[in-house]
Each structure stands twice: as structure tokens, then as C-alpha cells.
Write a structure and sequence with these properties.
Layout (H helix, E strand, L loop, with lengths): L3 E5 L4 H12 L3 E8 L17 H14 L3 E5 L1 H17 L6 H20 L4 E3 L4 E4 L2 E4 L8 H4 L4 H4 L2 E2 L7 H10 L21 H9 L4 E5 L5 E5 L26 E6 L4 E5 L6 E11 L10 E6 L6 E9 L2 E10 L7 E6 L2 E11 L1
Parallel strand pairs: 1-2, 1-4, 2-3, 4-7, 8-11
Antiparallel strand pairs: 5-6, 8-9, 10-11, 12-15, 12-17, 13-14, 13-16, 14-15, 16-17
Length: about 350
């Protein structure tokens, strides 16, 4: 049965091939590019972002080659509120957010899907490298490009109206197909950076919005102040470089950021061994897999950052919080990041990390 499908086209090779595949399958496809900035010149260029003027032109050219209608939707105000301002406020609170995860949740599969359904579309297709197996989110066949982690926040209802045409292909195969189809984005580099930070300098971006706020850097073992910083928001858990510590550690080994306290504006540093955690508490759980929410402890696996290592664990929902006990210690676990649970390649659910020990 032919569907009315809205193809989200970022201007990159993945979304272009995804739209082409859906159209070739006989569906009624309309391409849409999301204008996410009221000042696109302030966003990343040089094929590194996903929402610049350059990207919108690439998306339009791809739609012309495919032969589908194309529109640009202005989502700048929603993106600023739900992604950019959320990013800044999370850092101000001492957490480390993932803006791509938030963009998928709030923009691509909330604002866009809601509008698409209201306009009579049956589904939204994107170029994410992930699979839907019997309606359940699963990893891509290309582990290096798998994006199921950043889609783990989606609800069952949202997934029921989603199409991921690339999940059974590797990135190399997608590029080869784009070239065969005559899509000019076939060799366009992937975007890896935060699109709304033009120069990639997160610390400067946050300082411009939160202001300089000098505070102490404290050694966890000695309790001594070993340096100063211009704003605790400029640091992340597990960070080693750029600490500007005045005194070397007693054992001569590197120090890492262990905690960030926004109220006292204190950054605490210590040895790598102190980063190891085995217990995680996460909030705002979403259950989108084939099993019910785990009121009893279940054995599964968890991924704690995009393209990060996967850990065996035991997970259980207690009240509104998800408790995760890792089978082996993990380092650099930061509040604000997503914890996505898996059974093999299948996503069970996700939650936002609140604390780790």
C-alpha cells in the first residue's frame, strides 16, 4: 500500500538516498528541509552542519533529481527553545546534554511528525542509520554509523509513524548508491559537530551566554585548590585536557574532571580510577521496545553515549527512576546524557542520566 511520506532532507547524502528509496518504492513522497536558525550564517558551513543555507540548497537539488516536491519549514523558534536553550541551561546546571538526541526528540519526531500527521501524511522518513524490525527500533547493520542511540528517546507511537530506509545498508553502500543516482551530495562529508556552534568552541559559546564566573578547581584527594576556572559550565565529566591546573598531582599522573557543582561553581578533579562507576540512576524513562517496563530487574545492555562502549547491566524501574547496575565499571559517565538499554541489537528503552556512583 502506497503511503504519503514526508522525507526530512538535511542536505546530506543519507537523507537524500532515504528519500530516493522511499519514492522508488512507490510511495507519495514530499521532501522537507528544516530551517533551524533565524541567522543561518551563524551555523556551521563547509558541509559540516545540517541546517545552513548551503545544506538547504543541497537538499533542494537532491529533491529535484529524485523528482519530488520540496518545501522548507521554518523551525528556528522551536529549535532555539527546545534544543539551543536546553543545551545552555543543562550546562549551567552542571549536566552534559546531547543536543542531537534532543533535536530528534523535540524537533524531528515531535514538532515535524505532529505537523506531518496534521497535514495528512502517514509517516516521516529520515536518513538515520537504524532499523525498525516489526515496529521495534534496532541497530543499523553498519555498527560504525549506527544511530539507534540518539533515536532511543522516541516513543512507540512516534516510531509507528517513522521510516528508516538506510538501516540495512552500510555508509559505503549509501554513498555508492547516491553516486549512481546522480545525487551531488554523494561525497559530502558527514556532520559530526554541534550545528549551532559555528566554530566548534563549546566553551566560548557557553561563556558568551552564561558569562564568565571564576571558581576553584579542587583536588578530590587532598581537598586543596589546585587551580581556577572561568566557568564550571566549560567542563565535562572525564575531561583531562585544558584544565590549567597550577600544581601537579602528588603521584605525577594526570587528573580528570570528577564532578561539576554549579551552585558553588566548583570543579573537582582527581585520578582516573575515581571516574569508575557501577551504579546509575536515570530519569524520564521511555519504554519503546518489545517488553514492558521492567518493574523487576532484567539483564540487558546499556549504551551511555553516542558511539560509546556498550556495558552489560541489570536494570529496574523504581517509581519514576531507572536504576542501572553495570556488570563492569564505566568511566566518564555524565549527568544529562542518555542511557539507552538494548537486548542484543534491539532497543528496550531509554532514560536521562541523573547520577552515577
Amino acid at each position: 500500500m502506497a503511503l504519503r511520506v514526508l522525507a526530512a532532507m538535511s542536505g546530506g547524502v543519507d537523507s537524500a538516498v532515504a528519500a530516493a528509496r522511499i519514492a522508488e518504492a512507490g510511495h507519495d513522497v514530499t521532501g522537507v528541509h528544516l530551517a533551524l536558525s533565524s541567522n543561518p550564517q551563524s551555523y556551521r558551513t563547509g558541509a559540516r552542519g545540517c541546517c545552513t543555507i548551503e545544506d538547504s540548497r543541497d537538499a533542494r537539488r537532491a529533491a529535484d533529481v529524485i523528482g519530488i516536491p520540496f518545501y522548507i519549514w521554518d523551525m528556528a523558534e522551536r529549535f532555539q527553545r527546545d534544543v539551543v536553550e536546553d543545551f545552555v541551561s543543562e550546562y549551567a546546571a552542571g549536566r552534559t546534554p546531547n543536543p542531537c538526541l534532543r533535536c530528534n526528540e523535540k524537533i524531528k519526531f515531535e514538532a515535524v511528525l505532529d505537523r506531518a500527521l496534521a497535514l495528512g501524511f502517514d509517516a516521516v522518513a529520515t536518513g538515520h542509520h537504524a532499523r525498525l524490525v516489526d515496529g521495534v527500533l534496532s541497530r543499523s547493520v553498519d555498527p560504525a554509523k549506527d544511530q539507534s542511540y540518539v533515536l532511543g528517546v522516541l516513543t512507540r507511537e512516534q516510531l509507528s509513524h517513522a521510516i528508516f530506509p538506510l538501516g540495512d545498508s552500510t555508509k559505503a553502500q549509501v554513498r555508492e548508491e547516491a553516486a549512481r543516482r546522480g545525487l551531488t551530495v554523494a561525497d559530502k562529508p558527514d556532520s559530526h559537530d554541534i550545528c549551532f556552534i559555528a566554530d566548534g568552541n563549546t566553551r566560548a559559546f557557553l561563556a558568551d551566554r552564561l558569562g564568565a564566573a571564576e571558581g576553584p578547581i579542587v583536588d578530590a584527594l587532598s581537598g586543596e585548590v589546585v587551580g581556577t576556572h572561568a566557568g564550571a559550565y566549560g567542563y565535562t565529566i572525564g575531561q583531562r585536557k585544558g584544565l590549567h591546573i597550577d600544581q601537579p598531582a602528588a603521584d605525577g599522573r594526570p587528573r580528570y574532571v570528577l564532578s561539576i557543582e554549579p551552585v558553588s561553581n566548583t570543579v573537582t578533579v582527581g585520578p582516573r580510577a575515581s571516574l569508575q562507576v557501577t551504579s546509575i540512576v536515570a530519569t524520564r524513562p521511555v519504554w519503546n521496545g518489545p517488553v514492558a517496563e521492567p518493574r523487576e530487574q532484567i539483564a540487558c545492555a546499556v549504551q551511555l553515549r553516542a558511539h560509546g562502549e556498550v556495558y552489560g547491566c541489570r536494570a529496574q524501574l523504581s517509581g519514576e527512576d531507572l536504576h542501572i547496575e553495570l556488570d563492569a565499571p564505566a568511566a566518564g559517565v555524565a549527568a544529562g546524557q542518555g542511557a539507552v538499554l538494548y537486548d542484543g541489537d534491539t532497543v528496550i528503552g531509554s532514560a536521562t542520566i541523573a547520577a552515577a556512583s
